[in-house]
Specification:
The chain is an all-alpha fold. About 85% of the residues lie in helices and about 0% in strands. It is found in: Cell inner membrane; Cell membrane.
């Protein structure tokens, strides 16, 4: 029994962590955070970064425990979730690719401004985007199929820790964003931003295609 729990913890923690890190792509957030925090002092930038990670942790954890119930309540299929998520990701990628991120990700007026960017766009869709939300909802459906309450509780705990580890990694990326951006320079940041935008468009199209296949298959 003990070895089974260890294997379960390793499976859900490592599986969740690898999936979330791949989906969130922390390095792709460096140009975004550096741009948004350009007018903030170090203290304010640190505050926005920490808030974003706390918001993302709360959102993804809520989706883990309640995501399936919410989808069933509103009659939303996995196909619809994938299509909507794919369109959102593709639009973000399009704006990054063609240099129109200012319209989607407005900068705060000044350091210490009342409105920040921690929740949007850093926490959502930066960290807790459609892909990450779909990932944790998918994990929750796997957990629901486990045969006992103890196993389900263990799997939930392991997955929550994988979400926490992802958010801590994102915080480290945000805190180092300015240093990396200075090292890359303006042109380097622009190149990374546009390449990331192109990749996001591709990911978005893949999500949409997957959603359409789900609709066609009637799932």
């Amino acid at each position: 029994m003990e070895s089974t729990l260890y294997k379960l913890v390793a499976s859900f923690f490592l599986g969740g962590l690898l999936s979330l890190v791949t989906i969130t792509n922390p390095l792709s957030k460096i140009p975004l955070f550096a741009s948004l925090a350009a007018d903030l002092d170090e203290t304010a930038a640190k505050r926005e970064a920490s808030r974003a990670c706390v918001y993302a942790l709360a959102l993804l954890t809520a989706c883990l425990f309640a995501g399936v119930a919410v989808l069933e309540t509103f009659g939303i299929s996995y196909g619809a979730l994938r299509v909507a998520g794919g369109l959102t990701v593709a639009v973000i990628g399009y704006r990054m690719l063609f240099g129109t991120t200012e319209a989607l990700f407005p900068k705060p007026a000044a350091a210490g401004a009342a409105t920040g960017f921690a929740f949007f766009p850093l926490a959502m869709p930066g960290i807790a985007g459609p892909g990450a939300i779909a990932t944790v909802i998918g994990i929750s459906t796997e957990i629901a199929e486990l045969p006992s309450g103890a196993l389900r509780a263990t799997a939930y705990a392991a997955t929550v820790f994988s979400i926490l580890a992802t958010c801590l990694l994102m915080y480290g990326v945000f805190r180092s964003a300015r240093v990396v951006s200075r090292w890359l320079g303006g042109e380097g940041v622009n190149v990374v931003s546009r390449l990331t935008g192109f990749l996001l468009v591709c990911i978005g199209v893949q999500f949409v295609a997957s959603g359409i296949r789900s609709f066609v298959a009637g799932t």
